[in-house]
Amino acid sequence: MSQSRRRIAINTGGGDAPGLNAVIRSIVLSSLGRGWEVLGIRKGYEGLLDTSKIMQLDRDSVRGITHLGGTILGTTNRSNPFEYPIKLPDSEPQLVDRSSELVENFNRLQIDALIAIGGDGSMSIANRLAKMGIPIVGVPKTIDNDLSGTVVTFGFDTAVTVATEAIDRLHSTAEAHERVFVVELMGRYAGWIALNSGVSATADVVLIPEIPFDISAVCDKIMDREAHGRRFSIVVVAEGARPIDGQMVATDQGAGREVRLGGIGHQVANEVQERTGKETRTVVLGHLQRGGSPTTFDRLLALRFGAAAVRTVAKETFGVMVALDPPNVLTVPLKVATERMKCVPLDSDTILTARDLGICLGDSEGET
Ligand code: F6P
Known about the structure:
elongated; single chain; 17% strand; alpha/beta; 7-stranded mixed beta sheet; binds 6-O-phosphono-beta-D-fructofuranose
């Protein structure tokens, strides 16, 4: 790799998260400042399979985007080059391994390094590509905060802020109508968004995947409030939560796609209404948690991650992901970041706080 002029490439993969544009800007400006050239690969790893999707990034391309949601590079959660979905006429979609083609294109374009911005799926692909010789640095993003190796990912704070505001707003209408509101939040197999926003917005019940719930405990909590004159309740349910005797609720899954979670909110609401006789409504917050401007925390974290990724490329350290270990941004091997999902530890301070505040977590622990 020539020290003077380098050609680096960036992609954004998986579900979008507020802060992606901030990290792109940070990478582009930090690279241009070093006299490097920056290529933007559109739609995750897709642009390295179809190189017409590659664009040159200059100062103008990243002007005024720090505060914008989404990603100027586009993204997809269906472009895993190791399991790429193809559809031949008159047959079911099949998954094929196109990783060697990707490596060939990367070398042909004479790219010196790839900065891959993404969640667990994108970091696992990055780890495998690193083993195939691609000089790669990962940048962790996901609203779910489920990536190991970093204390937090950007996008998470924005999602929690949006969810907290939504739950805050439900309190008044719930109280006015003496109803139960069940709010289903994203987070996949981890309960970070539900727990942090539920505790912050004083929900009465918070159900997360890490603690399978007993619907009787949920209904007891609602009826106990009723007995104390609190004739409304807010139940926050992570999309990955499941009853002790049941499964997570998922919708469809096409070839090369992740399982889509969702539906547990309605299930909980139906059971609560049936068992308590209380009028119950469901709100599924969905992609509102991912849309719009990043919070200040997420912007700054994204900018810090972007600049740190470029410094990592400058040092020629590859096969790693930048990570937050407050107050520092450091790097961890991609292997460490991807070997296990980061779920909420059951002894975490936030869980203990929820219990001390009398919030029902759907189990019998914490009952007085
Ligand atoms: O991983 C981020 C996330 O928003 C999850 O919380 C959610 O389960 C999933 O993506 C939704 O994916 P899609 O955008 O494909 O519906």
